Structures are given as C-alpha cells and as structure tokens.
Write a sequence for this structure.
C-alpha cells in the first residue's frame, strides 16, 4: 500500500509496535530445551493482549501464530514440539494484523553458543538489510534493493535464496511490489514516498536453492545448509525509510 494520510501512518506504527513486542517476547525465551510451540504461544499471548491477530493464520490459514524455522529451514516453519538445542539457529517471523493494518518482521536468534559460521551468517543478513536502506528510498527502483543485498551477501561468502524476498504490505500480507534479494530486471517499479514494503534478506551458507517440505509449508535449503532471515516493514521516504517494526 501507499500511505495516504497521517492516520494510516499512525495505524501502521501501532501494528509495527505489536510486531516488535512479539519478537522481543519470544527472543527473550529462546534457550535450549524449550519447544517452538512454547515460543509461538508466547507470541500469540502478546498479540491477544494488544488487540492484534496472527496475519498468516487469518490470510493463509497457517497452522501457528508465527513462523518459527530452525537451521536449514529458511522460512515458514510450523511451531510444534521440537525442542531447541545448543547451537541451533531459530528464525522468528512475525506478521500481525491490528485494526485492519498489517506489519511483518523477522530475526534470527542463536540458541546458546553457535558456530562461527552461524554467527557470520546472522551478521551478514542484518548487514545486508541495513546497507539496502541506502536505496530503499523514493526515486530508486525496486531491483536496486536486491542489487545491494546480493552484493553484500556474496562478498561475505554466502548466497541469497532467490525464490524468496520482500513484498508490499499494509492491508494484507503480500501486496505489490515483490522485492527480490537480487537485481531482478523485472523489478523496475520506481518507489514513491509512502510506499510500504518489507525488505528481508533470506540467505544461506550453501547454494541458496530451496524446496518445500512434505508439510506443505516449511521451505528448506536444498543442501540442508544453515539459513538466516532478517526483516523489517518500512515506509519509503525521500530520505531514510521509517522502520515501522523497529519501534
């Protein structure tokens, strides 16, 4: 969506704050021995306390309040009775609806002590996001975001997952435009002030190729390499974007 007035911006800020609260609450409980269902229940409780709902459950009937993915699971992991183990990477991907507006963010959290490669992978996803903010501005084309992301990821020795990327958001989860994590020449839309999108490097320590698991939801790396995910919902401006889910 493109924001039309201050009321819409205020509503998006409000739902962005709930996303941040959910992520912070779940992150604080990440430790060996707990289940992904336990984390999901915490997130669902924070949503209810703040008059919000799980957008993936509403829109796509996803079987959980949030997507929680481990290790080689890139995105859309289903919460369940799996216990976290020392050295795991857990991706917390939260999309919330409140008062008719939606926002989306994701972080990758280490479980206890992780490998040096895992630490570098997490840092790379975050760094690629922040570098992309230099071109997530009015007047730039969408593909320029992916150009920056892929350049940083490759420089660090990793690969982007080309099948997955960011998207427009606001009134529903996935709106135009698609925001690839590589310089897709078809992503030529010029971004305007007020455009609401997600930017979300989804990267792999392996080839970057993925497949959908038998559950019909979970997307895994084809070579079972570790993956990391970092995302914010933002509003495009003529200068630095407004990060709605960083509040």
């Amino acid at each position: 969506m493109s924001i039309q007035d201050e009321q819409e911006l205020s509503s998006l800020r409000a739902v962005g704050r709930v996303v941040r609260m959910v992520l912070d609450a779940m992150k604080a409980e990440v430790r060996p021995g707990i289940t992904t269902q336990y984390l999901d229940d915490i997130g669902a409780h924070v949503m209810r306390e703040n008059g919000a709902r799980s957008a993936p459950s509403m829109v796509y009937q996803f079987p959980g309040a949030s997507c929680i993915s481990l290790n080689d699971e890139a995105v859309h992991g289903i919460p369940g009775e799996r216990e976290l183990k020392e050295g795991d990477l857990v991706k917390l991907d939260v999309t919330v609806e409140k008062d008719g507006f939606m926002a989306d963010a994701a972080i990758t959290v280490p479980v206890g002590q992780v490998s040096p490669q895992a630490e570098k992978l997490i840092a790379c996803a975050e760094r690629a996001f922040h570098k992309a903010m230099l071109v997530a501005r009015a007047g730039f084309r969408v593909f320029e975001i992916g150009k920056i992301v892929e350049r940083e990821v490759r420089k660090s020795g990793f690969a982007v997952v080309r099948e997955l990327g960011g998207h427009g958001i606001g009134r529903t989860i996935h709106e135009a435009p698609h925001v690839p994590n590589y310089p897709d020449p078809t992503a030529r839309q010029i971004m305007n002030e007020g455009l609401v999108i997600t930017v979300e490097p989804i990267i792999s320590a392996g080839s970057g190729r993925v497949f959908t698991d038998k559950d019909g939801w979970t997307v895994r790396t084809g070579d079972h390499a570790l993956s990391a995910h970092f995302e914010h919902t933002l509003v495009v401006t003529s200068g630095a974007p407004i990060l709605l889910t960083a509040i």
Observations:
- The first strand starts at residue 53 and ends at 54.
- DSSP finds five helices and 15 strands in the chain.
